[in-house]
């Protein structure tokens, strides 16, 4: 974890000085102490789950081998962690061709649900329905459509359903119809749930090594609990983001230079936005990917408003590499593609530095279950620490609940009046 390009030694007065960090040392220590108290009070469920017995998933993993497909129905925190893991570990391409094939239903868009259903043989599909609250409208809508289709097919369909929930309508149905069930602990919020049953049960079935993933997280947990800011990457990164926020950096760009971490950016985006966007505070997360976004976003980052801090993620070793063979003279001839993408990162990093845009960089030796587990835990801790710094509860999302309530009222009130008329009559010409 390298933060030198956020320091004044590299970007002049726009950067942070060592004495700026020294001024925050007391606050940093108290953040760690507060979190320690919260953990003792059972408020940090995302750390408690690291003590879970992984043998709980063995039987399900064996059972899932009977199926060609996994269908994941869930949204937000009940989707993004698994998605990030699948693409980080299995690779965005390989997983599409290997068994089992994984399909995601998150949105309540009828076209998308219909498209997925057309491809699926439901008898050969293990359906995960994931909702901590058990009442999320998008998840229930998709699940009810799938359930109904399965029922009509007249096979022993309840054996194809794995329900991961804690409460609500889904919990009731799970008990009534006796689905395979895993609980989501009450103290684990959706966006902090990737290392709980929400992520681990389907990951085990997708042949991701969950033991290594949680081992990586446990290794990182130790560092992220240290009071010494210079030894604790989560603590340092949360203070760098906080100090930059106070210098007007209201946007946090996550820019991995490896395709397999593209979805990790989405996971981070939810964690950072939903946890910290409260009481008028919060840094807006933006997801980019190098080198592709150099050709769409970089102009803005370098020469637009000075309101951003950029995080780079990169790897020293890719799963495979390709050498560029070419019979004519060319500047790239003989180089490996990994050398090209990593040089592009150097170019972007230095260009941003030249324009006084702060950046931090995390370099992984390679991207595997251990390093992914470390990344997940580091960012969960960084978010929890940031909640302490801002003095806000990082674990609730009252504004999201508000929107859900209005949507529900709108849906039920308008049924009798004919909703499509209502939708088309307001604010439309
Ligand atoms: O982080 C959160 O709590 C939310 O994003 C939830 O994960 C999301 O709203 C889905 O909720 P549920 O798992 O209850 O269906």
Automatic annotation (TrEMBL):
Source lineage: Archaea, Methanobacteriati, Methanobacteriota, Methanomada group, Methanococci
Record keyword tRNA-binding present: no
Name this protein carries in UniProt: Probable glucose-6-phosphate isomerase
Record's subcellular location: Cytoplasm
Biological processes annotated in GO: gluconeogenesis; glucose 6-phosphate metabolic process; glycolytic process
Top-rank EC class of the record's enzyme: isomerase
HAMAP family per UniProt: G6P_isomerase
Entry's EC annotation: 5.3.1.9
Catalytic activity: alpha-D-glucose 6-phosphate = beta-D-fructose 6-phosphate
A GO cellular component annotation in the UniProt record: cytosol
PANTHER family for the chain: GLUCOSE-6-PHOSPHATE ISOMERASE
SUPFAM superfamilies: SIS domain
Pathway this chain belongs to: Carbohydrate biosynthesis; gluconeogenesis; Carbohydrate degradation; glycolysis; D-glyceraldehyde 3-phosphate and glycerone phosphate from D-glucose: step 2/4
Signal peptide: none
Function according to Swiss-Prot or TrEMBL: Catalyzes the reversible isomerization of glucose-6-phosphate to fructose-6-phosphate.
Keywords: Cytoplasm, Gluconeogenesis, Glycolysis, Isomerase
Gene3D superfamilies linked: Glucose-6-phosphate isomerase like protein, domain 1 (3.40.50.10490)
Matches recorded under InterPro entries: G6P_Isomerase, GPI, Phosphoglucose_isomerase_CS, SIS_dom_sf, SIS_PGI_1, SIS_PGI_2
Active site residues according to the UniProt entry: 274, 295, 404
Family membership noted in the UniProt record: Belongs to the GPI family.
GO molecular function: carbohydrate derivative binding; glucose-6-phosphate isomerase activity; monosaccharide binding
């Amino acid at each position: 974890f390298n933060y030198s390009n956020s320091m004044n030694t590299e970007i002049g007065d726009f950067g942070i000085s060592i004495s700026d960090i020294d001024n925050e040392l007391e606050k940093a220590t108290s953040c760690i102490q507060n979190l320690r108290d919260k953990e003792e009070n059972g408020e940090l469920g995302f750390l408690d789950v690291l003590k879970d017995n992984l043998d709980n998933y063995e039987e399900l993993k064996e059972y899932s081998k009977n199926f060609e497909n996994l269908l994941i129905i869930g949204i937000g925190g009940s989707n993004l962690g698994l998605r990030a893991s699948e693409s980080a570990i299995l690779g965005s391409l390989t997983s599409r061709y290997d068994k089992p094939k994984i399909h995601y239903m998150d949105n309540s868009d009828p076209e998308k649900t219909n498209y997925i259903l057309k491809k699926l043989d439901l008898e050969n599909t293990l359906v995960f329905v994931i909702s901590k609250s058990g009442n999320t409208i998008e998840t229930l809508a998709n699940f009810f459509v799938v359930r109904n289709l399965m029922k009509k097919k007249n096979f022993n369909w309840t054996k194809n359903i794995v329900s991961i929930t804690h409460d609500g309508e889904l919990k009731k149905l799970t008990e009534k119809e006796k689905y395979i069930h895993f609980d989501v602990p009450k103290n684990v919020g959706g966006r902090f749930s990737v290392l709980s049953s929400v992520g681990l049960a389907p990951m085990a079935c997708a042949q991701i090594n969950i033991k290594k993933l949680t081992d990586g997280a446990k290794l990182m947990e130790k560092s992220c609990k240290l009071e010494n800011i210079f030894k604790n990457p989560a603590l340092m990164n949360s203070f760098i983001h906080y100090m930059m926020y106070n210098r007007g950096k209201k946007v946090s760009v996550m820019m991995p230079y490896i395709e397999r971490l593209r979805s990790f950016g989405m996971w981070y985006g939810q964690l950072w936005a939903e946890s910290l966007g409260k009481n008028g505070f919060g840094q807006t997360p933006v997801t980019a990917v190098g080198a592709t976004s150099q050709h769409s976003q970089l102009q803005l980052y370098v020469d637009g408003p000075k309101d951003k801090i950029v995080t780079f993620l990169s790897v020293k070793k890719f799963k495979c590499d390709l050498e560029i063979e070419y019979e004519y003279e060319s500047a790239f001839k003989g180089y490996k593609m990994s050398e090209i993408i990593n040089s592009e990162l150097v170019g972007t990093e230095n260009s941003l530095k030249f324009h006084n845009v702060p950046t931090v960089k995390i370099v992984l030796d390679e991207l595997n279950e251990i390093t992914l587990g470390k990344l997940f835990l580091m960012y969960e801790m960084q978010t929890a620490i940031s909640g302490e710094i801002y003095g806000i509860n990082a674990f609730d999302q009252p504004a999201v609940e508000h929107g859900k309530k209005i949507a529900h009222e709108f849906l039920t009130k308008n049924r009798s009046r004919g909703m499509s008329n209502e939708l088309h009559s307001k604010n439309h010409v």
